[in-house]
Amino acid sequence: MQSIMTAIKRKNIITIQHPESVHHTNGMVGSWTDWELSEKGKRLAENISSHLKQTIQPGSVVIYSSTLKRAVQTAEIVGKKLGLTPKLIGALKERGLGAGIGKSVQWLKDNIEQEELTVYDKCFADAESRYDVWKRLIPFYEEIISNEEENIIIVSHGDTLSLFNALWLGLDIELLNKIDLYGISGGVSFLYQNSAGKRIIKRLSDTSFMYPIANP
Q: Is residue 130 a known part of a binding site?
């Protein structure tokens, strides 16, 4: 028992759902279209970075980001403040919506091929289901859980992070047909694993980090 216990590593994981992107303002689908942060989103990312600088010790953290521009820009703003270079991970991309990519939200609603009632459903035949995203997240998740990195920042997207939250808590994928752990854009979550292996979500999608602080 002792050898099992000592093999468990403490983990402090901060996840950031990228703040306002251009697609949040123009009625377009996000998904894999490589939208940038809006000017407001960039300011919010700066505020998030200032709060994190007060929260964590520079140099003791690894930062991972989705490869999509809106997440990369967020990670670069945070990384610059903390003296870190983001590592870009394709598995952290938002869910691919197939034929809906590059289209407006209204077009998607008008042309959807299948209503998504379960994690296995796809809105279009060439889209990803939530289960598909779950599967592509697992190798990344298993890597960061088993490696020596104790303090980690992850910058990603709403649907992807909701699935990461469920993985973190050890939930069965099919529970997500009935429950969910969604955040909102710009939300910052704090996840913790103690030396006994207990998983905790201390804060879920805290929006206060988007507000400016007096002395960043």
A: no
